[in-house]
């Protein structure tokens, strides 16, 4: 056996297509995680004990169980009680709910980092709690959340390779399929690694750029 | 000072506030009439901020009643967001919104809370900026401004809601000495224009010059509520006040 990278070339369009699916799954998953994470974060900072407990429970439970197990539960387990998802949807939900446990803490941290005087000033101008959140607190908090959210996106994108085991036709799944058909694991894994790296590297650069754009004015004077 | 029919705009009856076991406000009674400037003085921890914050319900009183005109403020049924629109508040730390320009800071609440048309609000905002001398900074972000400039914008922001009363909690205490004057100047202008004001401050010159009444707070009580002439004179025998005024210089 020898190393022959040319064997991969004819598969590159298929690998890129699979990479596109990886991106799709990751973007949808991070959107799910933002919505769920925001809700969990609000539970956590609410003054109701029961909501705080729910939020704690969610975070502890999701973080305490391996993602792979959670994906199995969603894709292979739930159909037993009549809840069925296709591989794509199961991947998005599994990755999204998992990331939400981290995103929730990102949001909570950045909301609580906003000085309390901001909320008081907003309320003293007649804004309701939710109006103050919408206009004053969240815009500032989300800005501060952006870098850690970007990191979470990168982690989610890498985690999406686990979805190959629940037959989602993403990059890792295609890679292992083509690799075993051709008995060329090193070649295909090398190319897949390069594609993963290009994606994560690009995202991290984009996040940096966005961060700089958003902070214009706010911190330029510091 | 006020010759018109005497109907207080703010009425405080037997106000009491506890933080846990700590009783911070005790049997506070206070009437504030339209157009009056009431200055509250007293040493740190005497309850001045808490009193002011009870007026617009940033703190919930544990006892007593607060009325704005004839509506009781501290009841379950009161829409507190409506009440707060009538009471502008200026904080020691300015608390401008750093992600909004000066103009946006002023416009956000009139537009998104009061639902007033944008054009009209902008017109009013520009007039207010003119009034506080901040017109040419309207598109800047707060953190690029000096403390004095930020506080003047904060005053304009509160005024943009067309409040009936303005509450000031040590508006110049966080400022470098050379910036205090420009903020006091704006407040004097407001007072002259007939705004009803409740001002917590250590600026005794301002109190002497502008106040209609000065309240001295000590240990949660208003122990003196009188004209500045009386409060800043020897015609009373309140030792605590004498020593407070001596210490503040
Ligand atoms: N949120 C709070 N919780 C507990 N104690 C407080 C709180 N706010 C103020 N206090 C206490 O109430 C007292 C009066 O405070 P404050 O009204 O801020 O005084 P002042 O403004 O006159 O300096 C102080 O002893 C202060 O420590
Ligand atoms: Mg105070």
TrEMBL record, chain A:
<dbReference type="InterPro" id="IPR035906">
    <property type="entry name" value="MetI-like_sf"/>
</dbReference>
<feature type="domain" description="ABC transmembrane type-1">
    <location>
        <begin position="19"/>
        <end position="207"/>
    </location>
</feature>
<dbReference type="InterPro" id="IPR010065">
    <property type="entry name" value="AA_ABC_transptr_permease_3TM"/>
</dbReference>
<dbReference type="GO" id="GO:0022857">
    <property type="term" value="F:transmembrane transporter activity"/>
</dbReference>
<protein>
    <submittedName>
        <fullName>Amino acid ABC transporter permease</fullName>
    </submittedName>
</protein>
<keyword id="KW-0029">Amino-acid transport</keyword>
<comment type="similarity">
    <text>Belongs to the binding-protein-dependent transport system permease family. HisMQ subfamily.</text>
</comment>
<feature type="transmembrane region" description="Helical">
    <location>
        <begin position="57"/>
        <end position="75"/>
    </location>
</feature>
<keyword id="KW-0812">Transmembrane</keyword>
<dbReference type="InterPro" id="IPR000515">
    <property type="entry name" value="MetI-like"/>
</dbReference>
<dbReference type="Pfam" id="PF00528">
    <property type="entry name" value="BPD_transp_1"/>
</dbReference>
<feature type="transmembrane region" description="Helical">
    <location>
        <begin position="87"/>
        <end position="107"/>
    </location>
</feature>
<feature type="transmembrane region" description="Helical">
    <location>
        <begin position="181"/>
        <end position="203"/>
    </location>
</feature>
<dbReference type="InterPro" id="IPR043429">
    <property type="entry name" value="ArtM/GltK/GlnP/TcyL/YhdX-like"/>
</dbReference>
<dbReference type="GO" id="GO:0043190">
    <property type="term" value="C:ATP-binding cassette (ABC) transporter complex"/>
</dbReference>
<keyword id="KW-1133">Transmembrane helix</keyword>
<feature type="transmembrane region" description="Helical">
    <location>
        <begin position="20"/>
        <end position="45"/>
    </location>
</feature>
<keyword id="KW-0472">Membrane</keyword>
<keyword id="KW-1003">Cell membrane</keyword>
<keyword id="KW-0813">Transport</keyword>
<dbReference type="GO" id="GO:0006865">
    <property type="term" value="P:amino acid transport"/>
</dbReference>
């Amino acid at each position: 056996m020898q190393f022959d990278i040319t064997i991969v070339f004819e598969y590159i369009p298929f690998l890129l297509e699979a990479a596109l699916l990886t991106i799709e799954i990751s973007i949808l998953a991070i959107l799910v995680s933002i919505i769920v994470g925001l809700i969990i974060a609000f539970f956590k900072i609410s003054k109701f004990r029961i909501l705080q407990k729910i939020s704690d429970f969610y975070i502890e439970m999701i973080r305490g169980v391996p993602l792979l197990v959670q994906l199995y539960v969603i894709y292979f387990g739930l159909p037993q009680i009549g809840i069925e998802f296709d591989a794509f949807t199961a991947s998005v939900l599994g990755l999204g709910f998992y990331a939400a446990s981290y995103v929730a803490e990102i949001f909570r941290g950045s909301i609580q980092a906003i000085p309390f005087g901001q909320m008081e000033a907003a309320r003293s101008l007649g804004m309701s709690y939710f109006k103050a959140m919408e206009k004053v607190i969240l815009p500032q908090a989300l800005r501060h959340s952006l870098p850690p959210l970007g990191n979470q996106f990168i982690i989610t994108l890498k985690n999406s390779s686990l979805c190959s085991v629940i037959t989602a036709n993403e990059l890792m799944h295609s890679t292992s399929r083509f690799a075993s058909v051709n008995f060329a694991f090193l070649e295909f894994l090398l190319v897949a690694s390069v594609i993963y790296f290009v994606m994560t590297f690009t995202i991290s650069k984009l996040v940096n750029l966005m961060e700089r754009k958003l902070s214009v004015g706010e911190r330029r004077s510091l | 000072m006020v010759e018109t029919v005497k109907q207080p705009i703010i009425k405080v009856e037997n106000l009491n506030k506890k933080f846990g076991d700590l009783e911070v406000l005790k049997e506070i009674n206070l009437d504030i009439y339209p157009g009056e400037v009431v200055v509250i003085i007293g040493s740190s921890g005497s309850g001045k901020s808490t009193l002011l914050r009870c007026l617009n319900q940033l703190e919930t009183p544990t006892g007593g009643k607060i009325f704005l005109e004839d509506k009781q403020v501290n009841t379950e049924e009161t829409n507190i967001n409506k009440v707060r629109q009538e009471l502008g508040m200026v904080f020691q730390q300015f608390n401008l919104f750093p992600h909004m320009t000066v103009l946006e800071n002023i416009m956000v609440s009139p537009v998104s809370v009061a639902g007033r048309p944008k054009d009209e609000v902008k017109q009013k905002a520009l007039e207010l900026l003119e009034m506080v001398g901040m017109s040419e900074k309207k598109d800047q972000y707060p953190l690029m401004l000096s403390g004095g400039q930020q506080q003047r914008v904060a005053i304009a922001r509160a005024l943009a809601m067309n409040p009936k009363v303005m509450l000031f909690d040590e508006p110049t205490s966080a400022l470098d000495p050379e910036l205090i004057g420009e903020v006091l100047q704006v407040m004097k202008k407001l007072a002259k224009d007939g705004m009803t004001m409740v001002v917590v401050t250590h600026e005794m010159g301002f109190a002497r010059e502008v106040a209609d009444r000065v309240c001295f707070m000590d240990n949660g009580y208003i122990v003196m509520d009188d004209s500045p002439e009386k409060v800043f004179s020897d015609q009373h025998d309140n030792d605590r006040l004498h020593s407070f005024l001596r210490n503040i210089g």
